[in-house]
# Entry
Amino acid sequence: MMKKLFTGCLTAIGAVVVLVIIISLFSGGDGSSDTASGESDQSNQEQSAESGAEKEEKASKVKKAGIGETATIADVGFTVKNVKTTSVIESGNQFTEDAKTSGKFVLMDVTVKNGQKEPLTINSGYFEIKTSDGTTYEAVTDGQVLMAMGNVASEFFLTQINPGLSKSGKVAFEVPKDFKLKNAVLHCQTGFFGTESIEISLK
# Structure
């Protein structure tokens, strides 16, 4: 009887020891996981900080110019020769209606010079107006407006410019009546993805 009782006690103690070891192992695993998770979070934060710094650095590299000045990026020169606003674009053609808007149009005479060694394709979509509060206006693609503008509007419709040559044309934007040129810049880029861009003040 005593022998059985003694054996039972040893078995119980052994079970408790095994249970303690198992709990200890799991506790250690959790701590390791937390540490790994903490290191991962810290790494992600550092990467985000680096990404933000890279964006600020790229933004600071955007070249700027004023009206009448040439801003060059990647051997491509952009010059805004003239800017005006109007509520009506007169076609000057009896067969084409004038273009009208409830706001106003911003019309720009722009010259692009290709200083690269390969042909460059320019489209009106490569131009945007950006204001100081972050608002963006794309160039007009409305058929009625482009018809009223005539041939000058087609100068920047998927136009190819060979090396060493320039192309001039008009770019139109439709903006609200209270839009102020002094608070805006013309953002120009050399491709669809805007990896190379410049800004021209419209003051």
About this structure: The mean pLDDT is 77. Helices lie at 2-60, 143-149, 151-154. The CA atoms of residues 15 and 57 lie 63 Å apart. The radius of gyration is 33 Å.
